[in-house]
Amino acid sequence: MFDLQLEHSDKFDLQLQQQEVQHQNGIDSPQPIQQQQQQFLDFSTNNTSSSSDWGGNSQNPNFRNNIVSSNGEQDLNQEQKNMSAVRHSRDQIREMKKVFKHCPHPNQEEREKMSRVLGIAPIQIKFWFQNKRNQDKIMQEHRQNNLLRQENARLRIENEMRNEKLKNTICLHCKGPVSIGKMCFNQNKIRIENARLKAEIEKLSGVSRNHINAVESDYDITSSMIGELYYDGNDPFGSLLTPYFDKQKIVELAMVSMEELTRLTLAGAPLWISTNESESLNESEYIRVFPNVISPKHTGFISESSRESMIIFMNHVNLIKTLMNVNQWSAMFSDIVSKAVTIEVLSHGGLENYNGLVQVMSADFQVPSPLVRARENYFVRYCKKHQEGIWAVVDVSLDHLRPSSTTMPRSQRRPSGCLIQELPYGYSKVTWVEHVEVDHTTLLSNRFYNSLITSSLAFGAKRWVASLGRQCERLTCSIDTNVPTRDYCDNFQGRKILLNLAQRMKLCFSSIVGSSIESCWNVLTPDSHDVRVMSKTNTEPGTPSGVILNGGTSLWLPVLPKRLFDFLGNQNSRSEWNILSIGSIIKEMTHIRHGHDLGNYVSLFQVNNKNYMQNNNMLLLQDKSIDRTSSHVIFAPVDINSMNLVFNGGDPNIIALFPSGFAILPDGVQLSNGGPMLNSIGSGGCLLTISFQILVGLNPALKIENGWVEAAVNFIKNTCERIKVAMA
DNA sequence: TGAGAGACCCCCGTTACATCA
DNA sequence: GCTGATGTAACGGGGGTCTCT
């Protein structure tokens, strides 16, 4: 650490040490310390043998500062002259900072050693460390305060919204307004108001029906309704979609769905039924209020509906931009959305915003498990600005408009989406509605996951909103300069690089962990097999080409999701589940928080084990993330030389990432109050998906042998067994 | 064995000066 | 050159812990 050589006079050291001892022993010095230091200065200037100094610089100010002279007034003037030299040099501070990182409380011996090397009195080193500890503490408190202030602002807004909502809530008994601590209004007045509202609802329903009828009978594209949507009749993206008249139907369908979604987000009971902190639609009431608006339900299909609200730290403009850009949208919801594409834009909306944008899209919706079939959807997405600060984005399936010859879809989206309300300080309130009809005979294929799916925790609004909130926190942390970070990369740029790498790793993991995988993957095990093994040729530019082998499976464990998350994310317990890391010493080099919950962070580990990390030039990048509905621990080995290149301004894409890891979901059997992931739940069970990935060879033409598949299956099974034993 | 004194350390707040806009 | 804000080195007081008597 102290490799800098200093020719330092022992005489000065002795005097300084004596000075410190006297000071520490409470013996009053005949002169102030600074005056004594000035005496050292005078002594120094008269003693040529002491001219060598810090780093070969004979002008070292601190060194001069430690010198004592012996006369009075003249010294004071001299002292004032040298005040500009009171501060420690950059090199000295840098070296002390290095020590501080490992040891914020150096003992006397260590201080003396530093004193000799740095040319500062031990007492000065002691002061410096004291001040540094205080500064760090103050900074830490400052950061904590900022986080708390943000949290406070969010809670205040949420509270205001709740109060507002409460004002508008209708009492189930008397149909009147509800207020805390007050009884309902005069019943006659309430009944009159109720009748008026009912009439209004009927009227609005009539408008919807008439509207649809008008669409059925009139396909004039220049009608005032469609004109509002800026539709110009041209196909800027080519005619990928459907014949001309279908597009009019789609646009009209989008508009009607928007109306339905808006009403669904604002309605209360009896349309929505509240159970266990979640809301679902009252089916009979729904049919009464929205009769045959979209399309009849397929026989045998089951409705899944849910609604959830959340205040998120993202302004409405960015949120809408994210939702309307297919790449950003699938990245934002990477653990739910896969294979998303925009097929055709039917209307481009306003020039400066997305108001009126209508686009036809397709996407697979999945849970992170190879055992659950993904839901393929073909739908239209429409964005509309309702009034200043209030926007809505709606999706609705187009499957019923497809030619009858095509395969019957296994699920379809009824009007679903979100209402976005602009809030102060860059916040938005999002009310999310998910309403789908699903063929459970084909999509409920695994008994472990059935409860999760039917509880709406897999595909419901709660999961969408939790995922959105988590991702917003992550984005905020990546641009916040006050995020707590430890060691290795303590600068903003380095932190940003690591967070981006972790995000890339997560995207890659999400794309292979579910059942909706890209066609480039070659599945090597039969569908009936517990463990799925697949391979592909890596073609990503900048990374080593070769063959990647992936193995994955899911299992149920009788433990709380949070407990499993803590276990799998803890480097000290890694050898309990990973046979390759037994005997490893894993040291965390960097720790970057990316969320309020302490479980959300990215780490960079140094692992000294050749079995595990092939060579000493590899580090382990790990991303831990948890929200109210799911959590994951994802990790990948990264080459230390490539990392250094990237930290020095190189292209991050040169870092090859082959992520492995775990996705954890609650089993959804029985939910108590609070979030299923962060708080304990009644069921006590969770669903774990394991996915391991490895580059098996650098030859792209390599043929995968059966022995490798068997080895991969055995490795996954062994890992499962180890986790089961550890959790037992 | 417990009490008291002293040494040492740390935290916290303050002061004095340097630096910068 | 003056001024105010901010950063930094040094200092003092209070309190805790440990050792010795």
TrEMBL record:
Residues 81-140 bind DNA. Residues 79-139 form the Homeobox domain. GO terms for cellular component: nucleus. Residues 243-477 form the START domain. The keyword NADP does not apply. It is found in: Nucleus. One of its GO terms (molecular function) is DNA binding. InterPro entries: HD (IPR001356), HD-Zip_IV (IPR042160), HD-Zip_IV_C (IPR057993), Homeobox_CS (IPR017970), Homeodomain-like_sf (IPR009057), START-like_dom_sf (IPR023393), START_lipid-bd_dom (IPR002913). Residues 138-167 form a coiled coil. Residues 53-70 have a biased composition (Polar residues). The keyword Ligase does not apply. Keywords: Coiled coil, DNA-binding, Homeobox, Nucleus, Transcription, Transcription regulation. Residues 44-70 are annotated as: Disordered. Belongs to the HD-ZIP homeobox family. Class IV subfamily. This is Uncharacterized protein. The lineage of its organism: Eukaryota, Viridiplantae, Streptophyta, Embryophyta, Tracheophyta.
